[in-house]
Automatic annotation (TrEMBL):
Main location: membrane
Domain Major facilitator superfamily (MFS) profile positions: 7-454
InterPro entries: MFS, MFS_dom, MFS_trans_sf
Protein's recorded name: Drug:H+ antiporter-2 (14 Spanner) (DHA2) family drug resistance MFS transporter
GO MF: transmembrane transporter activity
Keyword Cytoplasm recorded: no
Residue ranges of the TM segments: 45-65, 77-94, 106-124, 136-156, 162-183, 195-215, 221-238, 258-280, 292-313, 325-342, 348-367, 388-409, 429-449
Top-level taxonomic group: Bacteria
Length: 456
C-alpha cells in the first residue's frame, strides 16, 4: 500500500538533492577560507565556524526531526526544509559581513537537519528489503560524494566569479528539488505519537555546543568551561533518554554491539570525508600556492569515482552480503589515506589526485553499506531511533573532524615562525590522527566478520 502512495525514486531524489546541496556547500566553502580570512580579517580558527555552526545546527535538528517525523507529514516537512534552505542561500548570496554569512549557514543547517533524516525515513519505510542496499547507496551518495565534489565546485566559483556564486547557482537546484518533491510526496496522514521532550533537546544543544567550543578553545579557560557545559548536556540527555516518557532518541539500540560497530565505522568514514575536504584544498593553496580552482580540481576525479560506486556498492551488498564490500572498501581507504599522508611531505598534485581516487574507491564501497548493514540489524520500531543516531552523529562527527583538523593546523601555525612549514606539519598530524581511527575500525570489522562469516 505504501509504495502506491508515494513516487519512491522521485521522493528520494527530491530530498536527496536538498541534502546534497547542503553537504556540497559544507565543503565548497572550505576552499574559500583563505579568501574569507583576508576579506573579513579573521583567523583560521574563526573561519572554520562557517562549517562548524552549520554542522552544529544539523546535529541539534536531526534528533528534533525524529519528533517531527512522528507528528507532521513528510510533505509538510519537505516544503518547510526547502524554503528554509532557499532563504539561507539568499542571505549568504547577499552577506556583507561574516556574522550575516553565519546566519545564512544556520538556516541551511536547519533545512539539512530536516532533509537528511527525511530522506532516510522515506527509504527505510517505503523500500522493499531486497532493494534497500541499492536505495541506501543512492541516499548516502549525497553525504559521501558531495564532500568530495564541494571543493571542486567551490574552487571553480571562487576563482572564476566570487565565493557568493556558490550560493547563487544552487538556487535553481533547490527550485527543481521543490517541484519534484511537490509532485512525488503526497500529503499523508500522520498519527501523532507523544509530546516533544524539550529537556532532551536542551541537553543535545548543550552537549554539542559545549564539545565544539571546547575543541575550538583547547588550552584556555573558556575551553574548560565549554567542556563542562558539554558534560552537563550529556548528563541531561542521558537521563531523559533512559527515564523520560517521550525521549527524542531511545538509546537502547546502542546495546546491540554489532550495530555500534557499524555505526562507528560509518562515523569514521564521515570523519575522513570532512577532514580531507578541509586539509587538502587549504594545503594546496597555502603550501603549493595554487588557486582555489586548482585546489578543487584535485578533488574532482575522486568525487567522480565515489559517485559511480555509491549505488553500485549497494547492489553488491544486496547480491553478495555486507562482508566483501565493507572489508574491500576499508582496505582501499586505508591504502589511499596512507598515500595522502606521506605525500604531504613531498607534495605532487597528481599524487594527491591518485591517492584521493584510491581512498574514494574505498569510501564508495564501505560508506553506505556500513549504514545499511547497521540499520538492517534493527526492528522496524527501532528504525527512527537508528536513523536519528546515524544522521545526528554523522553531522556531529563531521563538525568534530573539521574542528580537530582546524585546531591542529592552527596550533602548528602559531607554534612555528615558518607559516608554510607549520601548515605542512599540522596537516600531516591531522591525517595521522584520522588514520589511527580508520585502522582501528578496519581491524574491528575484520575481527567481527571472521567471527560471523555468515553475516550479510
Amino acid at each position: 500500500m505504501k509504495e502506491k502512495k508515494i513516487h519512491l525514486l522521485l521522493a528520494v531524489l527530491a530530498t536527496g538533492i536538498m541534502s546534497f546541496a547542503g553537504v556540497l556547500i559544507e565543503t565548497a566553502m572550505n576552499v574559500t577560507f583563505p579568501t574569507l580570512i583576508n576579506q573579513f580579517g579573521i583567523s583560521t580558527g574563526m573561519v572554520q565556524w562557517v562549517t562548524t555552526i552549520y554542522l552544529l545546527v544539523i546535529s541539534i535538528m536531526v534528533p528534533f526531526s525524529n519528533y517531527l517525523l512522528k507528528n507532521f507529514s513528510i510533505r509538510k516537512l519537505f516544503i518547510v526544509a526547502n524554503l528554509f534552505f532557499i532563504a539561507g542561500l539568499v542571505i549568504d548570496l547577499w552577506s556583507p559581513s561574516f556574522s550575516i554569512l553565519l546566519f545564512g549557514r544556520l538556516l541551511q543547517g536547519v533545512s539539512t537537519g530536516i532533509a537528511l533524516p527525511l530522506m532516510f525515513h522515506i527509504i527505510l519505510n517505503f523500500t522493499p528489503m531486497h532493494k534497500r542496499g541499492t536505495m541506501m547507496g543512492v541516499g548516502t551518495l549525497t553525504t559521501s560524494i558531495a564532500p568530495a565534489i564541494g571543493p571542486t565546485y567551490g574552487g571553480i566559483m571562487t576563482a572564476s566569479l566570487s565565493w557568493h556564486a556558490i550560493f547563487l547557482f544552487l538556487l535553481p537546484v533547490l527550485a527543481i528539488s521543490l517541484v519534484i518533491g511537490l509532485y512525488a510526496i503526497p500529503e499523508m496522514p500522520v498519527k501523532k505519537t507523544g509530546a516533544l521532550d524539550i529537556v532532551s533537546l536542551l541537553g543535545v544543544a548543550l552537549l554539542f555546543s559545549g564539545l565544539l567550543l571546547f575543541l575550538n578553545q583547547i588550552g584556555s579557560l573558556l575551553g574548560l568551561l565549554s567542556l563542562a557545559v558539554g558534560i552537563v548536556g550529556f548528563l541531561i540527555f542521558y537521563r531523559q533518554a533512559t527515564r523520560g516518557k517521550n525521549p527524542l532518541v531511545r538509546i537502547a539500540v546502542l546495546k546491540n554491539k554489532v550495530f555500534v560497530l557499524f555505526l562507528c565505522g560509518f562515523l569514521v568514514c564521515q570523519f575522513l570525508l570532512l577532514g580531507i575536504s578541509f586539509v587538502l584544498p587549504n594545503f594546496i593553496q597555502i603550501v603549493l600556492g595554487k588557486d582555489a580552482f586548482i585546489a578543487g580540481l584535485v578533488m574532482m576525479p575522486g568525487a567522480a569515482v565515489g559517485a559511480i560506486l555509491a549505488p553500485i556498492s549497494g547492489r553488491v551488498l544486496d547480491t553478495f552480503g555486507s562482508k566483501k564490500p565493507i572489508l574491500l572498501g576499508l582496505s582501499f581507504a586505508t591504502i589511499g589515506w596512507i598515500a595522502l599522508t606521506l605525500l604531504l611531505r613531498s607534495p605532487i598534485l597528481l599524487g594527491f589526485v591518485a591517492g584521493h581516487v584510491f581512498y574514494m574507491i574505498g569510501i564508495g564501497f564501505a560508506y553506505s553499506n556500513l549504514m545499511t548493514t547497521g540499520m538492517n540489524l534493527l526492528s522496524e520500531e527501532e528504525y527512527g531511533d537508528g536513523n536519528t543516531l546515524f544522521n545526528t552523529l554523522q553531522q556531529f562527527s563531521g563538525a568534530i573532524a573539521t574542528a580537530i583538523v582546524a585546531t591542529i593546523i592552527n596550533l602548528a601555525q602559531q607554534s612555528q615562525s615558518d607559516f608554510i612549514a607549520a601548515t605542512v606539519t599540522g596537516s600531516q598530524i591531522s591525517l595521522l590522527v584520522l588514520l589511527a581511527l580508520l585502522v582501528a575500525v578496519f581491524i574491528a570489522s575484520l575481527i567481527h566478520f571472521r567471527k560471523e562469516p555468515k553475516l550479510g
